[in-house]
């Protein structure tokens, strides 16, 4: 399993400007960019904020752009896939 440490975006910028691994809020909703560079909306997930600013997301994150899929986990700001 691969691991990538994510980075929280505090500037409320649009998810399209995120770098792979970034996560943050935009227009009151949580978004993330997977380590593969796919934007994931997290509105159908439970997002838990931790005291250190990281987040955990349940259930797992599955993104499909019509051509490829990405599936993994984000726990305490660390991506596992």
Structural write-up:
The chain is mainly β and 81 residues long. Helix content is 0%, strand content 53%. The chain has a five-stranded antiparallel sheet, with no helix packed on it. The model has no long low-confidence stretch (mean pLDDT 97).
Question: Short summary of the structure?
Answer:
This protein has 81 residues and is mostly beta strands. It contains no helices and 9 strands.
Structural domain tally = 1
Mean pLDDT, as a whole number? 97
Helix amount, in percent?
Answer: under 10%
How much of the sequence is in beta strands? over 45%
List keywords for this structure.
single chain, 81 residues, mainly beta, five-stranded antiparallel beta sheet, four-stranded mixed beta sheet
List the helices and strands and how they pair.
Elements: E1 3-5, E2 7-9, E3 22-26, E4 29-33, E5 39-41, E6 46-49, E7 55-64, E8 69-75, E9 78-80
Parallel strand pairs: 2-3
Antiparallel strand pairs: 1-9, 3-4, 4-5, 6-7, 7-8, 8-9
């Amino acid at each position: 399993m691969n691991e990538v440490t994510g980075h929280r975006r505090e500037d409320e910028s649009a998810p399209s400007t995120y770098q792979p691994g970034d996560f943050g809020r935009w227009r009151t909703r949580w978004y993330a960019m997977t380590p593969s560079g796919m934007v994931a909306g997290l509105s159908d997930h439970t997002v838990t904020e931790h005291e250190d600013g990281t987040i955990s997301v349940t259930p797992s994150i599955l993104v499909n752009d019509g051509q490829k899929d990405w599936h993994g986990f984000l726990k305490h700001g660390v991506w596992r896939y």
